[in-house]
Amino acid sequence: MILRLTLAPTLALGLLASLAVPAQAQQDKAAACAKSAGVVMQAVEARKQRAAKSQARAVLREQIGDRSAGDMLADWIWSLPEDQLTDEVGAAWEAQCLAQ
Question: What is the pTM of this model?
Answer without folding.
Answer: 0.72
